[in-house]
Specification:
By secondary structure, the chain is mainly alpha-helical. The chain has nine helices and no strands.
Length: 209
């Protein structure tokens, strides 16, 4: 996991799942009418909470699975299927619609501070991200591997933070059509990664060689 190709694959998977460019317009909607300082504070809080949640799932997720008797290979297959469904949502634009709905609900319930809900949970650390983090933890074999994965997670969160700060400029630059194109391309990549997770799980059960 500390090898460069493995780190690149981990970074790509987490980046696609969280989709920082796709979060930018949601952030704009949730912080509409706020000052730049207020937006920056909300972005910082959302990323700090997300980092805490990610590290919890990274270090304790597999232990929880073992406690309830689920093997990592079974979780890889289930996780791969879940990620594939997420990829389909991205390809057919259902994911953005749900994010917009979640954003609207969160804005109604927590108008003053949407940093924890819905930004950190479930928009940044959603089911797909949790699944991916636990799957990556299952591939770690040493403390260095866990440290490398944690570094990847924090690196993606830094990009999320940058996307939040640059959200207005990103929206103007890409436009609605550009955001749709980016989301669909990321969806295709995620579908391929999801299939790879399923194949890895099947191999763990001795299926497929």
């Amino acid at each position: 996991m500390t090898e460069i190709p493995a780190l690149i694959a981990a970074f790509t998977t987490i980046f696609i799942i969280i989709d920082p460019p796709g979060l930018a317009p949601v952030f704009i909607a949730l912080t509409q009418g706020m000052t730049a300082a207020q937006r920056r504070a909300i972005a910082i809080r959302a990323c700090i909470v997300s980092a805490g949640l990610m590290l919890v799932f990274l270090f304790l997720g597999e232990a929880v699975l073992g406690f309830i008797g689920i093997s990592m290979d079974a979780f890889r297959i289930a996780g791969g299927i879940l990620l594939f469904l997420t990829a389909l949502d991205m390809l057919f634009q259902r994911r953005q619609a749900r994010r917009a709905d979640s954003a609207a609900e969160g804005q109604a319930e927590h108008h003053d501070d949407p940093s924890v809900f819905p930004l950190a949970l479930p928009l940044i650390v959603g089911p797909g991200a949790i699944t991916t983090i636990i799957l990556l933890a299952g591939e770690a074999q040493s403390a260095a591997d866990f440290g490398a994965i944690a570094g990847v997670l924090l690196g993606v969160l830094f990009i999320v933070f940058a996307a939040f700060l640059a959200a207005p400029a990103i929206e103007r630059a890409l436009g609605k059509t550009g955001l749709n194109i980016v989301t669909r391309v990321l969806g295709m990549l995620l579908a391929a990664l999801a299939v790879q997770f399923v194949l890895d799980g099947l191999r763990g059960f001795g299926i497929g060689g």
